[in-house]
């Protein structure tokens, strides 16, 4: 799992608020992932864990997906996201 320490920051870097920077952000992340996979050659388990986490983040529609064209750009947050009882815990 040593390989994951270089992949986890990709999941933690937030998507820019300015839509004009989304393309640059997605290109940077794509080139970083490509160069990492070619240079470091992570183990299969680390690559599968990372790809599963990336898929779940992009599929959840919470706005953290680094891909430029996400399938749910105008999706609203669930009702529980604005519930003060849940947010305060």
UniProtKB/TrEMBL annotation:
Its main location: membrane. InterPro entries: BCALP. Keywords: Membrane, Transmembrane, Transmembrane helix. It is found in: Membrane. Pfam families: BC10. One of its GO terms (cellular component) is membrane. The chain crosses the membrane at residues 20-38, 45-69. Belongs to the BLCAP family. Acts as a tumor suppressor; induces growth arrest at G(1)/S checkpoint and apoptosis via RB1-dependent and p53/TP53- and NF-kappa-B-independent mechanisms. Modulates expression of genes involved in the regulation of proliferation, cell cycle and apoptosis. This is Bladder cancer-associated protein. It comes from Betta splendens (Siamese fighting fish).
């Amino acid at each position: 799992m040593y390989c994951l320490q270089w992949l986890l920051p990709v999941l933690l870097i937030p998507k820019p608020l300015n839509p004009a920077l989304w393309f640059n952000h997605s290109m940077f992340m794509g080139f970083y992932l490509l160069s990492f996979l070619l240079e470091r050659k992570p183990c299969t388990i680390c690559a599968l864990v990372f790809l599963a986490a990336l898929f779940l983040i992009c599929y959840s529609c919470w706005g953290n997906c680094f891909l430029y064209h996400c399938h749910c750009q105008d999706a609203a947050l669930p009702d529980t996201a604005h519930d003060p009882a849940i947010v305060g815990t």
